[in-house]
């Protein structure tokens, strides 16, 4: 029999998952909220550098590698093609950029050595010897409980104001049918606080080709809040409450390095018969501080009806919607011994079976957010009138795609080749109109 605490934990988890997986399908179009007016940009000068991060031996791209300007909080990540774009203020051009990736040796690159485009940064794989590890835990369950116990010691306990770049896409087959991007301000609450993080939209643009969305309107709910909810150390509703930890099996799989730090790789999966356990994945835990530095996890979608019940908020008559894959990741960055949210990504793949159609429709929905700068703040959270709503649906504002300098000095995630092609297609359409 489930305890009252277990039932409450599972209900909290379902709320979390509903927002996390962000999908709902509606048979009728809803009115779109308008974007707030963009704020004026600073006159600070900067230089832009583009390139790619690769494995030095194989030449394979290193996806979601972190690039940060030394001595600052400015950072970005490479995209799923390993490509990056980094805007460096002119007063920081004498600095170096540190490039890091799980299992690879960090590399420092002087900004002065970079070209405006086609920079190639190669990282070397790191071999880890067990003799380097001072303490090797023998009880994985005790390890994860210790990780959660030390959360207050390892994560930021002061409010932060962050600048972040957010992107969401909907892809039908091989074609993008919706693309939204935004620069947002995030009021990040202390990690021990139960208060939710707040988001304020600074600047955004979106384009949706409704003619390709079958006979329904498909929208992503949650926007940037969804990415913040993937911060599993701030929102431990899925696995890391005392009650939910017992529903999972943990296994210490290996040891690697991140940012020159030794890291345990702790695998987890549902225990046999654990009804409430929905996820499996890997946690990367710093061997000294026992802070989670990164996590990758998937939702088990093998039970299609159960997965659909959790993920799909509403669907049209005559359609059966089944998630086939739901994958997530979150990365943290460290400064002065404290860790903070740096990047998250969620991707859901699903199919739609129509009663009166011969072929199925296949969609891939992706959201990602990268923190590009942050500072400590003593200000109060954003006023309610300025905040984005938790159930926000990004509205259409295609005009931003016509301006090649739309983002100005703000760092963004370099578009993947396929997204870049979609943007160019939108620009051509705007010019024709």
Automatic annotation (TrEMBL):
Keyword Signal assigned: yes
Gene3D superfamilies the UniProt entry points to: Carboxypeptidase-like, regulatory domain (2.60.40.1120)
Superkingdom to which the source organism belongs: Bacteria
Gene Ontology terms for molecular function: carboxypeptidase activity
Coiled-coil annotated residue ranges, if any: none
Keywords from the named record: Carboxypeptidase, Hydrolase, Protease, Signal
Keyword Protease attached: yes
Signal peptide bounds: 1-31
UniProt-listed Pfam families: CarbopepD_reg_2
Protein name as it appears in the record: Carboxypeptidase-like protein
């Amino acid at each position: 029999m489930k305890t009252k605490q277990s039932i409450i934990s599972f209900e909290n988890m379902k709320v979390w998952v509903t927002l996390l997986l962000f999908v709902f399908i509606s048979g009728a179009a809803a009115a779109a909220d308008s974007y707030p007016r963009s704020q004026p940009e600073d006159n600070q000068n900067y230089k832009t550098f583009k390139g790619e991060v690769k494995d030095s031996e194989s030449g394979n791209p290193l996806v979601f590698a972190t690039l940060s300007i030394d001595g600052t909080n400015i950072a970005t990540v490479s995209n799923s093609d390993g490509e990056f774009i980094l805007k460096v203020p002119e007063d920081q051009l004498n600095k170096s950029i540190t490039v890091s990736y799980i299992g690879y040796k960090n590399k420092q690159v002087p900004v002065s050595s970079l070209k405006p485009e086609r920079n190639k940064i190669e990282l070397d794989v790191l071999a880890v010897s067990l003799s380097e590890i001072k303490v090797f835990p023998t009880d994985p369950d005790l390890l994860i409980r210790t990780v959660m116990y030390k959360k207050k010691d390892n994560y930021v306990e002061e409010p932060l104001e962050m600048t972040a770049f957010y992107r969401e896409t909907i892809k039908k087959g091989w074609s993008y049918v919706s693309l939204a991007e935004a620069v947002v301000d995030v009021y990040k609450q202390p990690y021990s606080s139960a208060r939710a993080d707040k988001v304020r939209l600074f600047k955004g643009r979106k384009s949706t080709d409704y003619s390709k969305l079958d006979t329904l309107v498909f929208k992503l709910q949650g926007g940037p809040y969804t990415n913040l909810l993937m911060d599993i150390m701030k929102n431990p509703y899925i696995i890391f409450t005392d009650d939910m930890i017992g529903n999972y099996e943990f296994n210490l799989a290996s040891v690697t390095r991140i940012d020159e730090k030794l890291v345990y790789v702790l695998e987890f999966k549902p225990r046999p018969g654990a009804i409430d356990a929905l996820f499996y994945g890997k946690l990367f835990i710093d061997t000294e501080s026992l802070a989670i530095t990164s996590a990758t996890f998937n939702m088990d979608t093998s039970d299609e009806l159960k997965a659909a019940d959790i993920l799909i908020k509403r669907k049209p008559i005559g359609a059966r919607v089944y998630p086939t894959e739901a994958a997530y990741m979150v990365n943290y960055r460290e400064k002065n011994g404290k860790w903070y949210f740096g990047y998250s990504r969620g991707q859901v793949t699903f199919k739609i079976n129509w009663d009166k159609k011969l072929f199925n429709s296949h969609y891939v929905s992706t959201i990602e957010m990268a923190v590009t700068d942050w500072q400590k703040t003593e200000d109060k959270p954003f006023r309610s009138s300025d905040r984005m709503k938790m159930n926000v649906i990004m509205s259409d504002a295609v005009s931003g795609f016509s301006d090649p300098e739309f983002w100005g000095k703000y760092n963004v995630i370099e578009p993947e080749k396929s997204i870049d092609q979609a943007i160019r297609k939108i620009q051509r359409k705007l010019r024709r109109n």
